[in-house]
Each structure stands twice: as structure tokens, then as C-alpha cells.
Write a structure and sequence with these properties.
The chain contains 26 helices and 27 strands. The chain is of the alpha+beta class and 704 residues long. The protein folds into four domains: 134 residues, PAS domain (Beta-Lactamase); 110 residues, Beta-Lactamase, CATH 3.30.450; 161 residues, Alpha-Beta Plaits (2-Layer Sandwich); 220 residues, TIM Barrel, CATH 3.20.20. Strands 18-19-21-22-23-24-25-26 form an eight-stranded mixed barrel, surrounded by five helices. Helix 19 packs parallel to helix 21. The longest helix has 21 residues. Pfam families: EAL, GGDEF, PAS_9. This is Diguanylate cyclase. It catalyses: 3',3'-c-di-GMP + H2O = 5'-phosphoguanylyl(3'->5')guanosine + H(+). GO terms for molecular function: cyclic-guanylate-specific phosphodiesterase activity.
């Protein structure tokens, strides 16, 4: 190395030039020394690392310009910077593309420092060259990865107002619709539009203010104004002094993910069939209603809505039809809601309504009544018409409960009271109903074992022809004789048996017992007549009804014409097409069919004429006041006329005196039954009645 490079230090340490020479030779980085005064800054020295990096031996470089490494690359931006450094005699650093002796290309970071003599004149330049080919290759890979990323990458200045954008990748334009030129130098606030009150923006402002990493989910707006959700991850970029100069942000479009999460949340809180709030959301709504009522010192009602005889639809038409019917009911009920009300589905055919009290804290029964009326309108499914009613129980906050569970439980208890009082009505919860509910539960347990323990029996009530005065039939009436409770009234257990499904085995037992008893009377030589047995809604929905009746008749030996099946008016109108099919199958067997309690339901004449019915039975409620109430008398006359017009017989039940009998006979009623003839009595008592009964019946008829 030229001694002038270290001439300033020679007086201090004679060994220093030698040490420096050894240090540069051992240095891992390439070092080259060029004369500052020579043309093209000719090389005076290159260490072994420089030789290894470029492929040129030191002897090949000495006296030559380093342009040998840039042949054909004279337009590099870095070379312009080098010329300025050399011209201005200052330190500097550039990155250059170089060519080795064998022509291969490599990239290097070149750091240039001037060497001055004792007078301060620059005599040489020392260049330190570091091969950054792999580093740049990695950077380029990262750059290409950023450019190819499906997520938006943004680089913003940490210094300018609003953190202006300095770089966006192509994904940003695809995601937002903004081209790079439209956002350069601008704030990303343009993506927020007028939606500036977002919770996520508060977090973003904190991240930028505190110059830390962070994350937020935002509503953004594309160039066309459409909204999308994005997850924004922000990280600060610090310089070598630790000062934050930029922020790098990665933006992910999570619109679909957000929609999926919202759908999952919706499904977790709403009934899949009707779209109504489910039990989970109902609990939250009740908690909110309780908190709101406490703040306002007011109340609200919880109404438990249960559809009457809905199981009949499922049993006869299948669950698909049942689901369609439930959707119709839910839509109807929703149409009556006010913005303060909540309607939820608990499951099956059970709904819960939360309704605020009227001014003065009065329960709003008008909404409940409107819902009952709406449910009662005919429903149409698969071209068939159904008639459904609702029983509703109401519990009031805070009198009947101060938490969701108590309110629902007490409303449920009141609903069962509505069932017990005839269905299609609403009842308020009373504290005494808790004991009734416990009694009902106990009764259900007793009912489940009553059949196998032989606690049921049948009583029979004669039916008499008004023109001939003879017994034409016997109605079989179910009785329950409990060993501890004694005689349990049918009103207490029939509905319960229907709801629990126990009515089906009980009903078939009654059919078999009645047929067997009638055959015994016939075998004993008594007059032949039919025995009438009530068929429940659950039995009527049984697909095996006709087959079971056929088997019972074959087993007991009773001819089909001596069995009459009594169906309630509301039952046959629930599903007209199903009724027609079942009645036709029953008539094919040869049994008789009558409609019980006629006049209490909602028969349509157009439907009634389609039914193969033998007899209409006038309900006792019309017969009771037939002599005192002109309306009841008119209804009775109308039913008799209707039955005759449709070529049906007509029988009146509940006849208790001769005047009622006379009125019915004068208006051409065919048959009667009631206490005037005989109370329902056990089969043994009927034997005696039958042996003298025709004479008794005839005398009663003639005496009237």
C-alpha cells in the first residue's frame, strides 16, 4: 500500500502501516484503495476479500478504474451518486449492480471514505464493499410477495398530517377500488366515509398515537361507496435511532367471515323454523325487560301461548305440514307485535310473548286477544284447511315472578289452566295454580298406571227413539275409580290423557270393552242396538284406527253396524281432507259415525256435506235452555232441519224433563238421551233397565 495513506500516523507508531496492511488483508469485507488525484480514480490496492468478491486479482486492478466492474451499466442511479461523492470529497454509501470477471452479476453496498494528508487534502478514497446479492434477492422476494399478496399492504408516513400513504400494493386497489395514484399522499380516512363513530377507529387512533402494534376491525367503504369489513393490523417501522418513521398496515377483507359469524350468532339466538327469538335470546330479552321495568317502576306481562290440538296436524299430515303451519302462525303473531313487544318460540307449538303494560300498570290483554283471534282464522297448508286455536297463560312482573324462569313457569301454569277451562281462552296466573300444577303432575303419574291396574270402567246411558219409544243405542262413558281418590271426574283427566297421549291406549280399551259388553247383551237375548263410543283427536289421527277397529270387532264378534263412533265437531273440521279419508275408511268397515257436541264448533256446510255422517248430536248447552232462550231454540231447530236436509239423523243430549222432550219431538228430533230417561250407569244396572227398559222408555215418551 502507498505509504502516503498512513503518513500522518507514522510518527506515532512505526509498525502501524504494517498492522493496517495485515488488518485489511484479514478483513472479511472487500476493501479497495483508489488515488483521488489519478484519472478515473485508479486502484492502488485491493485486499484478498475484494479479489474473491470480484474475481479480479489485485495486480489486474492496480492502475485501472473500478468502472471495470460496471461495464455496460453506466446508467445506474448509484453511479451518479458515486460521482457526486468523489467530486465533493465526502463520505457516502450506494448500492450498485456489479459484474465479476466471469461476467456474473452481483449486488454490493459500497461505502466510500476520503483519506486526507497532513494538510487536509484528499489523497485517496477507501471503499468498503459488501456483497448484498442474497439480501437484495430476499428483499425482492418479499417485495414480490407483497405485490402478489391477496391482502392489502399499506405504508404510511409517521410524520405527515393524517399519516399520508406512501405505498399500497395491487391488492389494495382490488379491495378498495382506489388506484395507488388516488391515495398517495392522502390519509386512509377516505376509506371511512362519514362512518367516523366506529369503535375500531378509537383503537386505531390510540395505536398511532402510542406508536405501537395493534389491531382493529373496521367498516370501510370502497370507491363505489359499497361497505366492507376489514381487519387492520398496524406495526411501526423504526430507523436506526429508534425513531418511528413509518407505519406498515396489513388489511384483510373479512366481510364474508363477519357475515358467517353473524349468521352463526343469529342461528344461536333464533329459531331455525320461524326466525323468532329462541329460548336463549328470550332469556336475554326478559332480563332487559326486567331491568327496564325496574328503572321505570312499571310492569310487563309474559304470555305463554300453546296451540290447541296441534299434534293432530303432525300426526295426520306429517311434520312438514306441521312446520308450515307453525310458520304461518308465527307470521300472523309477528304482524300484531308492537316495537316494544317480543315474540319467541320455545319449541314445538309453544310461543312466549313479552308485552308491556298499558298506562297505569294494567296488563295489555287486547294484544293477547288479538293473537287468539288471529290464530283462530283458518290456516291453509298443501291445499287443505286447518282450524287451530290457542290457550294462553299470563304471568305479570313483578307480582308473579322477578326472574325469567319464574315468569315463564307461572305463565306455563296459567296456560294449563286455560286448557282445563276449555281451551281457546287466556288465564292469569294465581298463586293457587302452583298447587293445581302439582296436583296435575300427580294426577298424570296416577293416570299412567290406571289402565294396567284396572281402574277404568264404562258407564252406559240409553238413547231412545222419540217416535217408537224404544232404546236404539247406548253411549259408553269412561269412568276412573281411583283406590285413594275415589271417582275421578272425566273433566279432570280426559284432557290430561289427550295431552299426554295416554288417551290412545285408554280409548282402544274403551272401544274393546264397549263392543264386548254389547255382544254380551245380544248373546243374552236382549234387544239389539248400537253402542256409541267417543273417539279422541289422538285416536282419530292414528293411521291404524280403521285396522284397530276392525280387529276389535273381529275379536269381540260384534257386527260393525252395532258400533257407533262419536267425533267432536272441532275434530272433524281440523283437517277436512284427512277427515273425509278416515270417515270413508270407517264407513267401509260398516260402523256408524256421529258428530258430538254439534253447534259448539265452526262447521262449514260445504265441508259438512262431504262427510259420510249418520247422526248429528245436539250439544246439551242448547238443550238446557231450549224453553227459555229463543236463540238456543232457534239453533236447535236449525240443527234438526240441517240434519234432515243432509239425510242424517239427529239426537239431543242432556234432556232432563218432559217439556224439553215434547219440544224436541214436536220439532222432529229423532232421538234423545239424558237424565229424563236414565243417568249413566254401570253395565249390570243396564241389564235390568233393558229387560224392562223399552216399556219404561215408551211410557216416558208417551207421557211427555
Amino acid at each position: 500500500m502507498d505509504g502516503q495513506i498512513v503518513s500522518r500516523r507514522r510518527g506515532k507508531n512505526p509498525a502501524l502501516p504494517f498492522l493496517l496492511q495485515r488488518a485489511m488483508e484479514a478483513c472479511a469485507n472487500a476493501v479497495v484503495v483508489c488515488r483521488a488525484t489519478a484519472p478515473d480514480y485508479a486502484v492502488e490496492y485491493a485486499n484478498p476479500a475484494f479479489e474473491r468478491m470480484t474475481g479480479y486479482a489485485c495486480e489486474e486492478l492496480v492502475g485501472k478504474s473500478l468502472r471495470i466492474l460496471h461495464r455496460g451499466e453506466a446508467d445506474q442511479e448509484g453511479l451518479t451518486e458515486i460521482r457526486a461523492i468523489l467530486r465533493e470529497r465526502r463520505e457516502g454509501q450506494v448500492t450498485l449492480r456489479n459484474q465479476r470477471k466471469d461476467g456474473s452479476v452481483f449486488w454490493s453496498d459500497l461505502h466510500i471514505s476520503p483519506v486526507r494528508d497532513a494538510k487536509g487534502s484528499v489523497t485517496h478514497f477507501v471503499g468498503t464493499k459488501c456483497d448484498v446479492t442474497e439480501t437484495l434477492r430476499s428483499l425482492r422476494l418479499r417485495e414480490r410477495a407483497i405485490e402478489a399478496s391477496v391482502n392489502a399492504i399499506i405504508v404510511c408516513s409517521a410524520q405527515g398530517r393524517g399519516f399520508p400513504v406512501e405505498y399500497v400494493n395491487p391488492a389494495f386497489e382490488r379491495m378498495t377500488g382506489y388506484a395507488p395514484g388516488e391515495v398517495m399522499g392522502k390519509s386512509l380516512r377516505l376509506l371511512h366515509g362519514n362512518d367516523v363513530e366506529q369503535e375500531g377507529l378509537t383503537e386505531i387512533r390510540a395505536i398511532l398515537s402510542e406508536q405501537r402494534e395493534g389491531h382493529a376491525t373496521l367498516r370501510n367503504y370502497r370507491r363505489d361507496g359499497s361497505m366492507f369489513w376489514s381487519d387492520l393490523h398496524i406495526a411501526p417501522v423504526r430507523n436506526e435511532k429508534g425513531v418511528v418513521t413509518h407505519f406498515v398496515a396489513a388489511k384483510y377483507d373479512v366481510t364474508e367471515t363477519r357475515a358467517y359469524q353473524q349468521e352463526l350468532e343469529y342461528q344461536a339466538n333464533h329459531d331455525a323454523l320461524t326466525g323468532l327469538p329462541n329460548r336463549t335470546l328470550l332469556h336475554d330479552r326478559l332480563l332487559c325487560a326486567i331491568a327496564r321495568a325496574r328503572r321505570a317502576d312499571t310492569g310487563f306481562s309474559v304470555a305463554f301461548i300453546d296451540l290447541d290440538r296441534f299434534k293432530l296436524v303432525n300426526d295426520t299430515m306429517g311434520h312438514t305440514a306441521g312446520d308450515l303451519l307453525l310458520k304461518q302462525v308465527a307470521t300472523r303473531l309477528q304482524s300484531l307485535l308492537r316495537h316494544t313487544d317480543t315474540l319467541a318460540r320455545l319449541g314445538g307449538d309453544e310461543f312466549i310473548l313479552i308485552v308491556e303494560h298499558q298506562e297505569g300498570g294494567v296488563p295489555n290483554t287486547r294484544v293477547v286477544q288479538r293473537m287468539m283471534d288471529e290464530v283462530a282464522r283458518p290456516l291453509h297448508v298443501h291445499g287443505q284447511t286447518f282450524f287451530i286455536t290457542a290457550s294462553i297463560g299470563i304471568a305479570n312482573f313483578p307480582d308473579d315472578g322477578e326472574d325469567p324462569e319464574a315468569l315463564i313457569m307461572h305463565a306455563d301454569t296459567a296456560m294449563y289452566r286455560a286448557k282445563e277451562t276449555g281451551r281457546n281462552n287466556f288465564q292469569f296466573y294465581e298463586r293457587g295454580l302452583n298447587q293445581r300444577a302439582m296436583d296435575r303432575l300427580q294426577l298424570e303419574m296416577e293416570l299412567r298406571v290406571a289402565l294396567e291396574h284396572g281402574q277404568f270402567s264404562l258407564h252406559y246411558q240409553p238413547q231412545v227413539c222419540l217416535t217408537e219409544g224404544r232404546v236404539t243405542g247406548m253411549e259408553a262413558l269412561l269412568r276412573w275409580n281411583h283406590p285413594d281418590l275415589g271417582a275421578v271426574a272425566p273433566a279432570r283427566f280426559i284432557d290430561l290423557a289427550e295431552e299426554t297421549g295416554l288417551i290412545v291406549p285408554i280409548g282402544y280399551w274403551a272401544l274393546r270393552s264397549a263392543c264386548l259388553q254389547n255382544k254380551r247383551w245380544q248373546d243374552a237375548g236382549l234387544p239389539k242396538f248400537h253402542v256409541a263410543v267417543n273417539v279422541s283427536a289422538r285416536q282419530f289421527a292414528d293411521k291404524n284406527l280403521a285396522q284397530c277397529i276392525t280387529s276389535i270387532l273381529q275379536e269381540t264378534g260384534l257386527e260393525p253396524r252395532y258400533l257407533e263412533l262419536e267425533l267432536t265437531e272441532s275434530l272433524v273440521m281440523d283437517n277436512v281432507d284427512h277427515t273425509v279419508n278416515v270417515l270413508s275408511a270407517l264407513k267401509d268397515i260398516g260402523v256408524r259415525v256421529s258428530i258430538d257436541d254439534f253447534g259448539t264448533g265452526y262447521s262449514s256446510l260445504s265441508y259438512l256435506k262431504r262427510f259420510p255422517i249418520d247422526m248429528l248430536k245436539i250439544d246439551r248447552s242448547f238443550v238446557r235452555d231450549i224453553l227459555h232462550d229463543p236463540d238456543d231454540a232457534a239453533i236447535v231447530r236449525a240443527i234438526i232441519s240441517l240434519a234432515h236436509s243432509l239425510r242424517m239423523g239427529v239426537i239431543a243430549e242432556g234432556v232432563e224433563d218432559a217439556r224439553q222432550l215434547d219440544y224436541l219431538r214436536k220439532n222432529r228430533c229423532n232421538q234423545i238421551q239424558g237424565y229424563y230417561i236414565s243417568r249413566p250407569v254401570p253395565a249390570d244396572d243396564i241389564d235390568a233397565f233393558l229387560r224392562a227398559g223399552n216399556a219404561v222408555a215408551m211410557a216416558a215418551v208417551l207421557a211427555a
